[in-house]
Amino acid sequence: MDDWRWMTATALGEGIADGTIDPVTLTETYLDAIAAHPMRDRIYARVTADRARAEAQAASKRAKAGLRRGPLDGVPISWKDLFDTAGVATEAGTRLMAGRTPGRDAEVLRNATAAGLVCLGKTHLSEIAFSGLGLNPMTATPPNVNDPDAVPGGSSSGAAASVAFGLAAAGIGSDTGGSVRIPSAWNDITGFKTTHGRLSLAGTVPLCLTFDTVGPLCRSVQDAALLTAALEGSQAPDLRHATGPLRLAILDTVAMDDVRDAPLAGFTAATDRLRDAGAQITHLSVPDLTEAFAFAGPLYTADSWAWWRDRIAADPDAMFPQIYERISAGADVKAADYIAAWSTLRRIRATYAAATAAFDAVIMPTAPILPPHAQRLLDDADYYKAENLLALRNTRVANLMDLPAVTLPTGTPSCGIMLCGHTGQDDRLLRVAAVAEAALA
Fold first, then answer.
1. 131 included as an active-site residue
2. Is 122 a catalytic residue?
3. Which among 162, 191, 232, 397 could bridge 181 via Cys, Cβ 3.0 to 4.6 Å?
4. Is-catalytic flag, 155?
5. Which position among 60, 78, 131, 155 bears the catalytic label?
């Protein structure tokens, strides 16, 4: 039964369907593993064992009666601790929300529960989800599966760790600048960022409402498709007949600058395998994209400050100084500059869409760096700032351009390859990613 912990969510669902896996036994397997794990408290902020057992028992009865609600009915997953859970604290990785206990589940959690998914608990994250590194000295910093001294990536850090360490079949996270994809890449799993607005943010503690998205961290593209459908309350696309050859473009603008040796090697090896599988890969430059990055700071911080400022003003010393410094910069953004920046960004999005229309996906290293060591980040504020910006740089392309994006493992530890699709065409990207995944395997 311990082998179940390393199976895809899809395979677990198939096992439940054919009667070889019982949801109650499966859930107890995960709960036992969580309880015994030495880094449990760095991964899970709270374990919802009673809820998990009740949901698993209901799923088991449905399976025996032939009344399963969907392909993942009875599969246990984790939730980033910014999704509201009725009667269970949701604190968004910050002392500013200590003890905050909502009365209702977030809409995506309600949808997932209706699809039969089992809630194991809430996972740690970067404070208020405002960092790509996953370092959180105010609550907990989850471990990295490849390096005990390194950060796990953020902000969905505990979500990634719960999967990578076999403590959940999948994790649900959020992605505002890379927060699903960076921890997925640094922990060698698959992460899917949806187009902004596809999945509901109702009942989700916001960071930046104009960029926040919800997405799964999991073991396969098929998992990502099934989980996204469950979160939405829809049917997943059929990926079985997805075929190539793929038309891919390597984004040279910004994304390939100063990529360090290991991520570059992983990306190069991955693109070689894609070519061997028949993919047509060319290089692409979109010069206007550089201008978009200049607006990222004001747009993100102003939006975030508008929601968080009163809570922060009540107790600014409760925050990790790096996060406080970053978000408080939003107080100085002028309304006219914010509006002008959005106008320019919409123009650049149109330019980018036209430049990439002929390709199935645009590809790049998910992150240009390996996960930095936690202690150095704590000791050196300038190093923290530089590494955080680099960690988020490539993933932010998809957020700024409002694209769905998938990161896949390359086989080089903590190095992912990212495929960016077209705005609103999430299911098409999943089909493309399924073909790429098969080539990389």
1. no
2. no
3. 191
4. yes
5. 155
